[in-house]
Here is the input.
Amino acid sequence: MVGIHIFENNGCSDRIRITVRDKYGRIKSDHYLNERWYQIVQRRLHLKHFSMTNVGFADVAGLVENLGGPPAYFTVIGIGTGTQAAAATDTKLAMADGAAVKLKTATTMTRVLGNVADDTNEWIATFNNATDGITGTKLITEVGIFNGVVNGTSDMLLHQVYTPSDSVNFDQGDSITVTVTMLNKQGT
Here is the structure.
C-alpha cells in the first residue's frame, strides 16, 4: 500500500484594533496590533509571531473534521494586564504576571470578506464599568479569544500581548473596544 501525503500551506492572519474612549465617547487611543506590514517584517527577519495557541490549533482541527472539537465555539473576548510575551503554549490571560480583567461574550460576531466571501472571522466587544462592573484604572496589555468566560478553564484560540499599554480609567467612565479579525488563508 502506498501512502500519499498532500501538504498545503494555509494559515490564519489576525489583526486587532484597540479603541479607548472617555465617558463622552471621545477617542483617547485608537491603534492596531499585527498590521500586515508588521507581519511581513517579522517573516523577513525570521521572527515568529505567536497569536494562535496550540490548544486553538487542535480545537480548529477538531472542528474541521467534526472529531473532538472544542466543547463550545469561540465567542468570548478577554482583556488583561499580563506583560509576558505571548507564546503558542499559552492557555490563559496573564500567564506569569498581571491579571485577567474580564472575559465576556463578544457583542458582535460575524464572518466578513477577506480574500473571498466569509473567510474572515470578526469579534467585537466593549468593556466598561456600567455593563461589566470593572473598576479602577487598568493598564490593558493583552487580548485573547476563548470558548468560555473562565480564564484558565476555557480554551484559548489566540493570545496577543502588546506594548505600550492602554490606560483605561473605568471609574471615570472610560471604555475599551476590542475588535479581533482573523483571516483564514493560503499560507505564504
In short: The longest helix spans residues 54-65. The first strand starts at residue 10 and ends at 21. The mean pLDDT is 82.
